[in-house]
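#lab-general

N.A. 3:47 PM
ok so I finally got the sequence cleaned up, no stray characters, all 183 residues accounted for. can someone with queue access submit it? mine expired

B.Y. 3:52 PM
send it over

N.A. 3:53 PM
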Amino acid sequence: QNRRRKDMDNKVKKVIYVFASALLSIFLYIILHEGGHMIVMLSAGATITDFSILTAHVSGVGGNYTNASDLWLHANGALLPVIVSFVYMLFYKKESRSMFYHIFSYMFCLIPVASLFAWAIIPFVYMQGNAPAGDDVTKFLYNFTHDYHPLLVSAVAVLIIAVGIILMIKKEIIKTYIVKIRK
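B.Y. 4:20 PM
back already:
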């Protein structure tokens, strides 16, 4: 009876940790994503008029945008969270005994890497004339494809995804997550 109760408590704890980690990771991803856009807007001299985590939105007025800064504006929303997650992976401590730490680390590293799948897929859709209007990838491609082939974006996205997965494997983030969940 006691053992059964302890097992049930442990399962509930894991479910809570997974949901809490996912929510916290999504919250941080939104801050980093919109913050990535905001950094470029500020560097172009824009004034930020709205920053919302709830609606995942940042807007500003003014600024002197070049073709390069416009490209960075759309790409940096994806790149900043990826860069931060890569740095996080470098400092990951697999020896930690905290179940929450390992579950959170997995979510925090996976979400930015997984978000790059849009950057790998949308260029194919863009070439067919069906890219989602208003999407960061579509906006990026609109300027990028004046000089380069859209599938270059797909290739770079796949490369970054591969590096992220390799880092997660080498640092044993995935393995430790699975062990903690199964335990």
